[in-house]
Amino acid sequence: MWTYHPELLATPVPRYTSFPTAAEFGDDVGPADMEHALARVREDEPISLYLHVPYCHEICWYCGCNTGAANRTSRVAAYVQRLGEEIDLIARRLDGRGKVARIAWGGGSPNALAPSQFDALMHRVRAAFACSEATVSVELDPRGFDWGWADCFGRNKVTRASLGVQTFAPHIQRAIGRIQPTEEIACTVGRLRAARVESINFDLMYGLPGQFAEDLDETLRIALSMRPERFAVFGYAHVPHLLPRQRRIDATRLPGAAIRFAMAQQAHRLLRGAGYDAIGFDHFAMPHDAIARAARSKALRRNFQGFTEDPSDVLIGLGASSISAFPGALLQNEKNAGRYHLRIGNGQLATARGIRRGASDRRRGAIIEALLCRNEAECTGLPDLADIRERLAPFEEYGLIAWAGTRLLLDRGALPYARSIAATFDPWRAASTTRFSSAV
Ligand code: SF4
């Protein structure tokens, strides 16, 4: 189905959950940019909120998220207090403008909070914003998701949940510092169903230490028996120079690039065979699920959470390190929890880094998003199109892409190369020294 061309995947590339990517963020933007962007939100414009909880009960060795141990209740309580203040701060700037279509909780693990803290923050969001019809989604750690949490989800009308599963193989769980028995995941799924969560996603990983094809096969079969509506299947990104916690992982046991490629294909084949639609290059969904419907109607989007059916052009990030996306700027809050506390405590917006997006960035961002979400893009008007076509020539020679005038079309076999193809439109990649993860 897919042919392996290692030379086309030799250069690590971004995941393009935004364009420009976070690697291009600088500190020449700040609260004034956030004020300006919020002031431009229109009366009934659909907006999405993202609430970041930078805590987990246990820290997994492979994790690339901005999170720390939730081992001091006073620290978590202080964070909840500031997050509540930031919700009010942003709502005051919007002054009733914008209609919240989506409330997404991520982290870290939102269920590192107590259910009562989650209740309180949801109450604050609902009081501060127009969000009576918003869809609520939560990323969660299945370990410790008890009936108290299930009731909390029911009360707060959470209808989507994403579970960090990664692998069911006990020997790999030990190698990545995340022990979670299969029964625990099954119980969590049962509790989510009882709480009327209608779309459950499993995050799975390939390219893990000591992982073989049969391990991945077994994990996929167990996962399929639980019938989640969605899967996201990621290649493990080993970047210990950026994430010191990954030094605990034995790099000598990581599968090589050819095996990673074969594993990506194995997951794709098995999930497609089980009736799931392929969504972009690493998501899968049951055909009735909202994201599969969005893909069929060419409405699929890409944002910081990956592929999404969320159509909003405005995403407001709340909490330390969260990123807000506006048509004209990408703006990130203080990553450092102490400085975040200080800023919000002083009644200031917490924006610390980011990038303003000009017309050229928006145009290239739209092309990259179209390539990743719809496998095709109209590329007319780009001043460097001739150079881009030259960079894409090797992909064309292998039949992975074709041009219809200025329209670029990706072949079905180009899926594992989609990010590398998208990267040819990214002028920052040539100059950047930032090291990304493997292209597959
Ligand atoms: S539970 Fe999730 S967010 Fe927390 S450390 Fe593990 S992988 Fe990272």
Automatic annotation (TrEMBL):
Q: Where does S-adenosyl-L-methionine 1 bind?
A: Y50, G107, E139, I323
What's the cofactor? [4Fe-4S] cluster
Q: Which domain of life is it from?
A: Bacteria
Give start and end of each Radical SAM core domain: 41-274
The record's subcellular location field reads:
Cytoplasm
Q: In which pathway does it act?
A: Porphyrin-containing compound metabolism; protoporphyrin-IX biosynthesis; protoporphyrinogen-IX from coproporphyrinogen-III (AdoMet route): step 1/1
Q: Which reaction does it catalyse?
A: coproporphyrinogen III + 2 S-adenosyl-L-methionine = protoporphyrinogen IX + 2 5'-deoxyadenosine + 2 L-methionine + 2 CO2
Q: Output this protein's name.
A: Coproporphyrinogen-III oxidase
Q: Which PROSITE patterns match?
A: RADICAL_SAM
The EC designation for this entry is 1.3.98.3
Any one Gene Ontology cellular component term annotated for this protein? cytoplasm
* Family annotation (Gene3D superfamilies): 1.10.10.920, 3.30.750.200
